[in-house]
Write the structure tokens for this entry.
Amino acid sequence: MGEMKTLHLTAIISSIVLVVIAILFITMQKPTNQPGVYEYLVTDYTPNTNKTWGTDIIQNQTFHFDDFNMSASLPKPYWVDMYDTNFTFPNGLQASLIPGGAILEAYVTFPNETVPYRMAVTLGNNADHKAVTVLSTHKDPQAGYAIYNNTIRLLVNWPKIHSDVSLVGFNDTYKTGQPINFQIKANGFDYLDGAETPTFQVKGPDGNMVWSPPDIHNGVRCCPQELVNYDRMFDIAKLGGPIVIDKAGLYDLVVSYNHQQVTKQFSVITSHVTSIFDTGVYPFFVNVDNSNFTINYNISGYNKLFDTKMDSQSKSLILSLKPTSNGTLVVSIPRALLDAKTDSGQDDQFIVLEDGSEINYKQIYSTIMDRTLSIPFQSDTSTIEIIVTQVV
């Protein structure tokens, strides 16, 4: 009986030893979760305090940032997710007092790593309120924070993040009174409010605003921002346009969308007044389909020009009419749209067709910008086609 108890006790001890060994083996196989450390401090960085979010340059790198007020009333711990990077502050967004003054402790976890980076900085008394910036050693993204004036600025540098805004169909030169229509193209990978629309305005040479859209709903946000790929196109006519400038001069168009801004300089020149009967009546305007141009025209009587389009294959401008009587069409053709030149670079004749038959016309005015033609037509004319030797 004693031998059986001894064997039973030995078996229990052996089992315990095996369990302990197994636990030790498993523990040895688990990766240690020791936090990383910050690499360096930047004390000469002066944040742009005119904005609370956007991008800023630190050590020749572009960082996306968002500002938060440092307050003891915020929860502890306090965490923020920004561009798939998690910032955790064990003591909240408030420095902890230590014998040396104060310390702010943060842990940053990146999308491709589970081990957090510890980025703690001793602030001392920070009496002069100079900015203190802490950056991690992690790359793509690199992250950190800056402290200034009771504000903490979270910083993320990630090559995948990009935003771009460009103008489509915007010209370098317009005439006074001419409607300026174009499109705004925006694309990128960034945080985006799906309801946000571009804002735009025109500034004069002195920097003062001379035109802005009347639509007060431009730029209004309604929805939580999401980190998404986006590719959007906006028509200025649906955002409160077109732009109309009545005074000749040099102007700047400023367009803003989703942290990005583009400025385009353009000139407005005095319109040449063209009238069939030289009455001083200003011409009408019509957009040219298949192009980014608007042409000036005037037409006699109650006749109407209702459509124009470019045919690149036949190198021609096609004008569609609704006449009620015989008349004359005066049209100014931008040289940048189409032009007729000789081999020596001189102005050449256009070929003008009325419903397919060639007719005579007169060139009544020309500049380096355009050529103005006077074209007679019959009451049953449906199309006038202007054929040129060069299409730009």
